[in-house]
Amino acid sequence: MSETNIEKVVIVGSGPAAHTAAIYTGRAQLNPVMFEGFMAGNVAAGGQLTTTTEVENFPGFPEGIMGPELMERMRKQSIKCGTRIFTETVNSVDLSLRPFVVKTDERSIKTWSIIVATGATAKRDPIPGTGDNELWNRGVSACAVCDGAAPIFRNKPIFVIGGGDSACEEAHFLTRYASKVYIVHRRDELRASKIMQLRVQEHEKIEILYSHKVTRAIGEDLLRAVEVEDLKTGKKREMPANGLFFAIGHKPNTDFLNGQLPTDDQGYLISLKGSETTIEGVFVAGDCKDKKYRQAITAAGSGVKLKIRGANIFGNFQVVPGEPISHQDTLVIELNEHL
Q1: Beta partners for 62?
Q2: Which of 25, 179, 186, 221 has the fewest CB atoms within 10 Å, i.e. is most exposed?
Q3: Angle of helix 67-80 relative to helix 16-27, nearest 10 degrees?
Q4: Are 158 and 180 in contact (CB under 8 A)?
């Protein structure tokens, strides 16, 4: 097999982690290929930031920047650094032999290394009024840290759906801005850790609606109220609300890997050190492995923590197709740049 037909680096994903990896590998003359996906997970290329409005916490934009515009700028920079981008969704990869094989509906590509940076999608209940063409990003969100400080939420009532640590953390965070925060939970007790339960139960701004669910989001241009149902009595009531936050977890976008990389009990990819995995030449970055921060800036940072292993990347030695690369034949190229 001719090595000229094998890519050095393939990046799967299109968010901040993917584009940061593309910029650094491009500047290292590795000629990366990126599959940015076509409405993968029902999200446009660019990831979750394409579903947000103004981003106020990304460095370099004192006046803020719209999420889609920020991702378009990253995309242009990746291309400028030599990245070839395909708007195709990766359906499968074969990590059992080298070179690895990456497949979409349109093509099959062989590569010596893969960077998985596919992110995670916030779980959302199908509540009337919360859809993408309804009040999503108009008072309805799934990220308190991203959106909680927005002017529309300041000194206003906010609702958080969920009962675990994430819901409690988001509710507690939102008390900085809201006049009142309601946690709406289907069960008669929280699932969160004891310390998180105490934190929200003892907070004067937080009220927990046990055995309740939100049945409808109400508003025209912006959210103005929610309808909640008491699951024990069946009684429904409308309550004023300027914010509604889903906090029922995230789903890492890793189905295409078909279990070839280890995950934790929530499905997040496990890295050994930095971004390396149990398979040499396969790296993970961004929200598909980060269940704690899930921020654009942390995802971008993780895209830099990459080591491309294997002198074969530069054609320094012959690799027998179908056989793993031996550790004796590898060298480590650090993608660090002096600023």
Answers
A1: none
A2: 221
A3: 20
A4: yes
Please say if 146 is a catalytic residue.
yes
| Residue that is written with structure tokens 């942390």 in the block | 298
For residue 332, the model assigns a pLDDT of 36
Looking at the domain that runs over 124-246, which CATH code has it been given?
A: 3.50.50.60
Dist. CA 117–CA 74, nearest whole Å: 14
Work out the pLDDT band at 290, boundaries 50, 70, 90: low
Pick the closest to residue 111 from 94, 87, 89 (CA basis).
Answer: 94
Mean of the per-residue pLDDT values for the chain? 83
Which has more pLDDT, 58 or 164?
A: 164
Q: Clarify whether 147 is annotated catalytic.
A: yes
81, 147, 168, 290: the catalytic one is: 147
Domain ranges of the chain: 3-121+250-334, 124-246
pLDDT band at 83 (very low <50, low <70, confident <90, very high): very high
The reply to whether 3-121+250-334 and 124-246 are identical in fold is yes
Tell me, what DSSP letter sits at residue 3?
A: G
Determine the Cα–Cα distance for residues 147 and 245; give it in Å rounded to an integer: 10
Selecting among 81, 125, 146, 230, the annotated active-site residue is 146
Catalytic residue among 94, 105, 143, 288: 143
Residue 230 is among the residues annotated as catalytic for this protein: no
Cβ atoms within 10 Å, residue 232: 10
Residue 246, Ramachandran bin (φ over 0: left; ψ between -120 and 50: alpha; else beta): beta
Average pLDDT over residues 105-134: 92
Residue of 164, 199, 156 lying closest to 181 (CA atoms): 156
Sign, CA dihedral 276-279-284-287, equals negative
- Class of 3-121+250-334 per CATH? alpha beta
C-alpha span between 181 and 168 (Å, rounded): 10
Query: Measured between alpha carbons, how far apart are the two ends of the chain, in Å?
Result: 39
